[in-house]
Design a protein that fits this description.
It contains two helices and three strands, in the order H-E-E-E-H. With 91 residues, it is an alpha+beta fold. Strand 1 and strand 2 form a beta hairpin. The longest helix has 12 residues. The termini are far apart. This is Deoxyxylulose-5-phosphate synthase.
Length: 91
């Protein structure tokens, strides 16, 4: 059963210059402004896990991924095809 299709879940939006992320409902056509700086937030997907603000190296990697137009999603954006898989340790 597809749980993502039954309910409208909030997406993760990130502001890379401020190094913050927020969960918001999809806005459709309008842009989501950052409450700190006013720039447009970038949609990071359903499965985005933001790094700590002090970790500038991780945020530079997030910046490169989001600048390439990629999003942090599972195997399928609806969540149906997710299977357990290896996740590397954080440290």
């Amino acid at each position: 059963m597809c749980y993502y299709a039954m309910t409208h879940y909030k997406l993760h939006y990130a502001c890379v210059p401020c190094r913050v992320s927020f969960k918001r409902h999809p806005a459709g056509d309008r842009e989501q402004p950052c409450p700190n700086c006013g720039r447009e937030l970038v949609c990071a997907g359903h499965d985005f896990a933001p790094p700590p603000r002090r970790d500038t190296a991780a945020w530079s990697a997030v910046s490169a991924v989001l600048a390439a137009g990629l999003r942090y999603e599972g195997l399928e954006p609806c969540g149906c095809g997710k299977r357990p898989r290896f996740r590397p340790r954080r440290r």
